[in-house]
Specification:
The structure holds two protein chains of two kinds.
Chain A (H helix, E strand, L loop, with lengths): L1 H14 L4 H32 L7 E5 L5 H9 L3 E13 L4 E9 L9 E3 L2 E3 L7 E5 H7 L9 E4 L2 E11 L13 E5 L3 H4 L9 E7 L2 H11 L8 E3 L9 H36 L1 H9 L4 H37 L2 H4 L6 H27 L18 H20 L2 H28 L10 H11 L1 H35 L7 E6 L1 H13 L8 E11 L2 E4 L1 H5 L5 E2 L5 E5 L7 E6 L7 E5 H7 L6 E6 L2 E13 L10 E3 L1 H4 L5 E6 L7 H9 L4 E4 H54 L4 H39 L7 H22 L1 H5 L2 H6 L1
Parallel strand pairs in A: 3-9, 6-8, 14-15, 16-21, 18-20
Antiparallel strand pairs in A: 1-10, 1-11, 2-3, 2-7, 2-10, 4-5, 4-8, 6-9, 7-8, 12-22, 12-23, 13-14, 13-16, 13-19, 13-22, 17-20, 18-21, 19-20
Helix pairs in contact in A: 1-9, 2-7, 2-9, 2-11, 2-21, 7-11, 7-12, 7-13, 7-15, 7-21, 9-11, 9-21, 11-12, 12-13, 13-15, 13-22, 14-22, 15-21, 15-22, 22-23
Chain B lengths: L21 E12 L2 E13 L4 E5 L6 H8 L7 E6 L2 E2 L5 H11 E4 L11 H11 L5 H11 L15 H14 L4 E5 L7 H18 L2 E5 L3 H5 L3 E6 L2 E4 L3 H17 L1
Parallel strand pairs in B: 3-8, 3-9, 6-7, 7-8
Antiparallel strand pairs in B: 1-2, 1-4, 4-5, 9-10
Helix pairs in contact in B: 3-4, 3-5, 4-5, 5-6
The chains are: A alpha+beta, B alpha/beta.
């Protein structure tokens, strides 16, 4: 019985549009989660490629020259699997053109972790003899994208064939921000290219994998043997100057989806309430005709399940479309990465199920508890269990979903706090409206007083309308503000003529010719900064430990845990502000960046010990600096004097600005100085901006849906109050209220409601933005004073227009029509 | 036409009320309000024989609807006992009461109480489906034909007039072949012409099915068509002097049928 009846009820209600609201709400939740998760998946992969490259192994030794064979033998003895490879830049020549590429020459066994993904799917094979595996954009850059397999390719002194197209390498293979495309070849083929000559800039990579005990033992053994130019890598720490900006983009996207979830939850909550209220009579009638509790439970469980499934299905389709839509607007390097769709899909389904059931649980319980006597006594509503329980459950559902989705506590908490704030404000407002408005009756001819009286009478009903409307407005404000702030932030990072290229790994002997190169081409650069890599080993003589050691239970002061880029300089760098002390007046002093100072709990006068090339030396903290990381200048945590650092081997870095029209100079530069690494910051930042623009655009789409949904809620809610409103109008008309009075009172009532919603939205939006900017995005906090006027006005206007339009028929009717119907 | 046996749970307490469709003894109902205990029904006694039609009239707030709710096993009395078709209601839980309503009772309401998203046919099918009747659809079609709505099977309640909606409700009430039919102001929301039409149909089908009818109404004309008239006043039920009115209704009825 239940099945056929549930199906029939579902079919009929669907046909008549009764389920539109709740299905739309569920769909919205699933759509925003699955769609935006799809996009963020792509971005995350892209970002991971840049900020924390997968290393295709557990540990890597990174060296400019081959390492001693004893080290490799030791690894073997410890039972570690290992594979060697080389990385170098070279010019690759095709029939039509040439292109600078990054060559990865890999030995048998690569990769130790992960797998190579070709356009035809994952593979366990490696390039054969004379084969190059290439990225799609290389084929395009060479103009051979139509049949790359037929192109004859020269690399150094050898000929190669472009055999397979790479989608992704487990390490560094996919990197939309890299300036040169990657080709993969056999390690054995490197010899015949004759590219590697004495003095060639090559990175030898030794990858290791195995159990953590053996790895630790190996690390202990190998670390003292490494020179400063050799690096021990676990999960590469992103020293990239734009890592912070990338992280913000990622978080913005997460936040957007989280807000989408929060909003959809509100929508589902309201829709579920409406859904259940509509069925009160049906339940009472069914019970009267003798339906058992089980029959009714089954009926509505099945019905709700059908509703949820429909919402989820539609949401998945919509989410996929959203994903496709946004991806089509993203840069091709990101869009071309085909992420699997099961995770966003699964997330969407989970969201749909959790939100639909958690939010409808309470209204459904009330529905099932409707007494049959309601058929005779229409006002009966059955038990009213604590609404706070419902609120608590809804919050828990939202927090759970948020955490499931973002994995970020601060983000989730911010959203929860915002929702609580909105709930508290609404509760307080409802209380005030009921209490204060008590004296205001209907005995008035002033439209404002009449409107206030109307608001008070409908206080409870209005509270629900306010939830929908102010949360929609709130989200709109938050997203708009954050988007603008992020774009501004990135704009600030790239003001006209600010550096857009970084050169790192400049060998000391290249410094002078490079300066000449810049002078010849009229390029202005920042100061050139020497870079020495070193580890801080002690503070005031106390040996430092790493976080992982601390987790293992080792007691001691926690240090930085990785090597730092150190520099020397006698004057304060431009864009740095001196906060305390005096900058490096004499040898033996160090100037520290303020955040590191805070993190390590340092103070002026502390003695820091550094270990470089197995030699220790100590310096005293004499000044503290604020560093503007976003300026894209070379920036450093620690600045010392040449007298202390100059004794160690160093490379240098510099940044400069180059107009796009002169981009080919970079190719000349790389040809002249093949050992130097170029980072094209401009391209990265532009891509980020593009991404945020696209994401914001897609969010705008979602928000339009949201606004439509809240308008729908508003409609559904006014529908419920229409009968009482009609009676009131009839009475007012009968006692001589003019058309003008009634119209203005009704309009004013809606306008006031909208203004309250707008005001609430601004208050909570400022709070939310404060939390987000301080806890998550690290942006400057400021008040949006214009909103405090604009949002209530806009809210009032929108709601008044909608409300008047909704009541237009009632307002047009004559007294007798009103009384009759 | 129906020889159904009571369900297991209803078999106990089969005492003297066996011969009554409804038997009520010392029935009291009071509710707790802010001003204290408020007594609505005071020691009601009632005995309705199978096939009788009983009208309960009385001023607003006299307790008519409360009594109806108690008789129909929708509400629980404060004191006293009710037997429906020989089975005592006291001691039954909600599920058992629902089973009893499903098997023996049916209802017609002032506000029709049709499911507004289901068609006329589907509304009539509901009680039969709840009872697990196999040919619910055919039965419902036949019932709608009897109330003259065979051309309106696929219409939604909002596409029907008030009179038509109540006729659907009548068809729904009789599909489960009830022993007792409770009607709460069945013509209260209808204009006089439609009200009379609906009442004619109700009494006719009631007579044909030999159902016991309990009708609560303000409408004295409607009440006069029942075989017994009871007056509810301040929580007390009393038999009214039926002679004249009853014979009047006996004369009226064929006349109205001829006019219809």
């Amino acid at each position: 019985m239940s099945w056929t009846l549930a199906l029939r009820l579902f079919r009929r209600e669907l046909q008549q549009g009764q389920l539109l609201l709740i299905i739309l709400a569920i769909m919205l939740a699933v759509l925003s989660v699955s769609g935006l998760a799809g996009v963020s998946e792509r971005l995350q992969v892209a970002i991971n490629g840049q900020a924390a490259k997968f290393i295709a192994a557990d540990r890597i030794i990174n060296s400019p020259e081959p390492i001693a064979t004893e080290i490799l033998e030791q690894a073997q003895e410890l039972g570690l699997s290992q594979v060697s490879s080389m990385r170098f830049n070279s010019m690759l020549f095709g029939d039509e053109g040439f292109q600078l590429v990054t060559v990865r020459a890999v030995g048998q066994g690569y990769p130790l972790k992960g797998e190579i993904e070709l356009s035809s799917g994952p593979t366990a094979k490696l390039p054969g003899e004379g084969e190059l595996w290439y990225e799609n954009r290389l084929a395009r850059l060479l103009g051979v994208q139509d049949n790359p397999q037929d192109a004859s390719i020269e690399l150094g002194m050898a000929n190669f064939a472009l055999a397979e197209e790479i989608r992704r390498l487990p390490d560094a293979g996919f990197n939309p921000f890299a300036s040169s495309p990657v080709v993969l070849m056999r390690l054995e083929d490197v010899g015949k290219t004759q590219i590697i000559q004495p003095g060639s800039r090559v990175t030898y990579l030794y990858q290791f994998a195995g159990d953590s005990g053996a790895l630790d033992e190996f690390e202990e053994y190998v670390k003292p043997l490494l020179s400063t130019s050799q690096r021990w890598v676990d999960v590469q720490s992103g020293d990239s100057p734009i890592a912070g900006a990338v992280q913000r983009a990622e978080r913005f996207l997460l936040l957007a989806s989280l807000l989408g979830i929060a909003l959809a939850c509100a929508a589902i909550g309201i829709a579920a309430q409406r859904y259940c209220q509509r069925h009160y009579d049906v339940v009472a009638m069914l019970k009267t005709f003798g339906a058992s509790g089980k029959q009714i439970r089954n009926l509505f469980a099945l019905h709700l399940m059908l509703v949820t499934l429909t919402g989820i299905a539609l949401g998945l389709v919509g989410g996929r479309l959203l994903d496709i839509g946004i991806s089509s607007m993203l840069p091709e390097e990101i869009a071309s990465y085909d992420t699997s769709w099961w995770r966003p899909g699964l997330l969407g389904v989970t969201t749909g199920i959790i939100s639909a059931f958690m939010f409808s649980a309470y209204p459904l319980l009330r529905l099932l508890a409707i007494p049959p006597l309601r058929v005779l006594q229409r006002q009966l509503e059955g038990i009213s269990m604590g609404a706070w329980l419902h609120l608590l459950m809804s919050l828990a559902a939202m927090a759970l979903l948020g955490y499931l989705y973002s994995g970020s506590v601060p983000l989730t908490m911010t959203v929860v706090v915002a929702v609580c704030a909105l709930a508290v404000l609404l509760g307080a407002l409802g209380f005030v409206m009921v209490r204060v408005g008590h004296s205001v009756g209907m005995k008035t001819t002033n439209p404002l007083q009449l409107a206030l009286a109307g608001l008070r009478r409908r206080a409870r009903q209005n509270a629900v309308q306010l939830v929908g409307f102010s949360s929609a407005l709130l989200l709109l404000l938050v997203i708009m503000a954050l988007r603008q702030d992020l774009l501004d932030e990135w704009q600030k990072q790239l003001p006209e003529n600010s550096p857009n290229y970084f050169l790192v790994n400049i060998a000391p002997e290249d410094e002078a010719p490079m300066a000449q190169f810049f002078a010849n081409n009229g390029i202005l650069t920042t100061d050139i900064y020497p870079v020495v890599r070193g580890r801080m080993s002690a503070i005031n003589g106390e040996q430092l430990i790493t976080y992982s050691q601390q987790e293992e239970g080792v007691e001691g002061r926690v240090g930085i845990g990785r090597e730092l880029n150190l520099t020397w300089r006698d004057t304060l760098p431009p864009n740095n502000d001196l906060l305390e002390g005096e900058f490096n007046t004499k040898p033996g002093e160090v100037s520290i960046e303020t955040k590191v100072m805070e993190r390590l709990g340092l103070k002026l006068g502390d003695e820091l010990t550094f270990t470089i090339d197995n030699r220790d030396f100590s310096v005293k903290v004499t000044s503290v600096r604020a560093v503007h990381w976003e300026t894209l200048q070379p920036n450093f945590f620690m600045i010392m004097r040449q007298e202390d650092l100059g004794q160690f081997a160093h490379t240098s870095m510099v940044s400069f600005h180059l107009d796009d029209s002169r981009r080919e100079l970079v190719v000349d530069l790389i040809k002249s100085f093949p050992t130097v690494s170029v980072i094209d910051v401009g391209a990265m930042v532009n891509q980020l901006r593009e991404i945020v623009e696209q994401v914001s655009l897609s969010l705008t789409l979602v928000l339009i849906l949201v606004l439509a949904a809240s308008a729908l809620v508003l409609f559904a809610q006014t529908e419920a109050g229409m009968a009482t409103r009609q009676r009131e109008l009839a009475v007012l008309r009968t006692f001589g209220g003019s058309g003008w009075l009634l119209r203005s009172a009704t309009g004013l009532e809606f306008a006031l409601l909208g203004m309250i919603a707008g005001f609430l939205a601004v208050v909570v939006a400022e709070l939310t933005l404060y939390l987000l900017k301080t806890q998550v995005f690290e942006l400057n906090v400021y008040m949006h004073w214009d909103w405090w006027l604009m949002a209530p006005l806009a809210g009032g206007l929108i709601v008044a227009t909608l409300g008047l339009w909704r009541c237009r028929n009632l307002l047009r009717q004559s007294c007798s029509q009103l009384l009759q119907s | 036409m129906r020889m159904r046996f009571p369900r297991t749970s209803l078999r106990k307490k089969e005492e003297n009320p066996v011969n009554s469709a409804i038997k009520v003894s010392r029935l009291c109902k009071s509710v707790t309000t802010q001003e204290g205990e408020l007594s609505i029904l005071n020691g009601i006694e009632l005995d309705v024989k199978p096939g009788q039609s009983v009208a309960i009239t009385g001023p607003s707030g006299s307790g008519k609807s409360t009594l109806l709710g108690l008789l129909a096993a929708l509400d629980t009395p404060t004191d006293g006992e009710i037997w429906l078709d020989g089975a005592a209601l006291s001691g039954l839980d909600e599920e058992q009461k629902a089973a009893l309503r499903k098997d023996k009772l049916s209802f017609i309401f002032q506000s029709f109480m049709l499911v507004d998203t289901l068609t006329a046919l589907e509304n009539v099918m509901l009680p039969a489906e709840l009872a697990g009747v196999k040919d619910a659809r055919q039965k419902a079609e036949a019932m709608l034909e009897r109330v003259g709505l065979s051309h309106r099977l696929g219409h939604l309640p909002k596409q029907l007039s008030g009179g038509e909606q109540q006729r659907v409700a009548i068809a729904r009430a009789f599909i489960s072949e009830p022993k007792v039919l409770f009607a709460d102001e069945p013509t209260g929301n209808l204009d006089p012409v439609n009200g009379t039409k609906v009442a004619d149909m109700l009494f006719e089908m009631n007579r044909e099915s030999d159902t016991t009818l309990v009708l609560v109404t303000h409408d004295l004309t409607l009440a006069s068509r029942c075989s017994r008239q009871l007056i509810m006043e301040d929580g007390h039920l009393s038999e009214s002097d039926v002679g004249v009115e009853e014979s009047a209704s006996r004369i009226e009825q064929p006349l109205k049928e001829a006019q219809a």
